[in-house]
Design a protein that fits this description.
Strand content: 15-25%
Largest sheet: 7 strands, mixed
Structural class: alpha/beta
Oligomer: single chain
Strand order of the largest sheet: 4-3-2-5-6-9-7
Helix content: 25-40%
Number of strands: 9
Shape: elongated
Number of helices: 12
Radius of gyration: 21 Å
Length: 277
């Protein structure tokens, strides 16, 4: 399928849907609240509609593009514009610190990201939270709903918890399929994420947190006393003490994992870490 301007063919394996609506591109750039000194990372610039608007706000834009067929057009279009840098490669293999060796105020990520790697990109930004200050990302709406979900909803899960450990997120805009070429089969949303360099909760061991939330959500429709019994038993808390252990932390054993907030899981993970030492 040919893009709207008869440019390079869209490649399904890269999850490409090129944004074509300039009004939407303007609004996404505005959500970044960029200053002329900001260092910006754009993941998957595609044909450059958003890149152009980012460069109108700051000269320090680094774009990472994996599709070789798009590289020449981007270089030709933006060569000599400010301090624009175009990096050919896979963002998931990139060393973020090496990309931005001099970013005293941190980095803002503003992107229409490839939909097939949305979750890995969010994980990448979480790992680089000491570098990344803000992210404005256009993703599938179902992904956006998971990023901003609250306890007690069907979208609330591991993605929500891992992000909320170190960031706050809000859905700021929905985007229709007709604003892309080719149009995706789903609605899209723009999410703005504000990162904290350190965890927002007093978590002792991130690995234990991931283990225990993973165990809890593996069977998300079951009660905590059932989903966590085996994990707790393997970590020194006998199965017949599961209910007492949860109650001692102020957690109702008959709740489902989706009913616990981040601070509940942090308290639980810290208690397990304490029991192991």
């Amino acid at each position: 399928m040919i893009s709207a301007d008869n440019g390079p063919r869209r490649k399904k394996r890269f999850g490409q849907h090129f944004l074509t609506n300039p009004v939407i591109a303007d609004r996404i750039a505005e959500f970044g609240e960029l200053t002329p000194d900001d260092r910006v990372l754009e993941i998957g610039p595609g044909q450059g509609i958003l890149t152009e608007r980012l460069l109108a706000r700051t000269p320090y834009v680094t774009a990472v593009e994996i599709d070789r067929d798009l590289i020449a057009g981007l270089r030709s279009r933006f060569a000599g514009t400010g301090a624009f840098r175009l990096v050919e490669g896979d963002i998931l293999r990139a060393d973020m610190e090496a990309l931005f060796p001099d970013a005293p105020g941190g980095v803002k990520v503003v992107s229409n990201i490839p939909y097939n790697i949305s979750s890995p990109i969010v994980e990448l930004l979480i790992r680089n939270r000491r570098l990344v200050r803000r992210a404005v990302l256009m993703v599938q709406r179902e992904v956006a709903m998971r990023l901003v979900a609250v306890p007690g909803t069907k979208d609330y899960g591991l993605t929500t918890l891992n992000l909320r450990l170190c960031a706050t997120a809000e859905r700021v805009m929905d985007v229709k399929p007709g604003d892309f070429s080719p149009p995706p089969e789903v609605m899209s949303s723009v999410v703005r994420i504000e990162f904290s360099p350190e965890y927002r909760y007093p978590l002792r061991d991130a690995l234990v947190f991931r283990e225990i939330t993973g165990a809890a959500f593996r069977q998300r429709r079951k009660m905590l006393r059932n989903t966590l019994a085996s994990y707790l038993d393997a970590h020194g808390i006998p199965g017949d003490r599961t209910e007492d252990f949860l109650e001692s932390l102020g957690i109702v054993p008959t709740l489902r994992p989706e009913n616990l907030d981040v601070d509940d899981f942090v308290r639980l993970a810290n208690a397990v870490s304490g029991a192991r030492t």
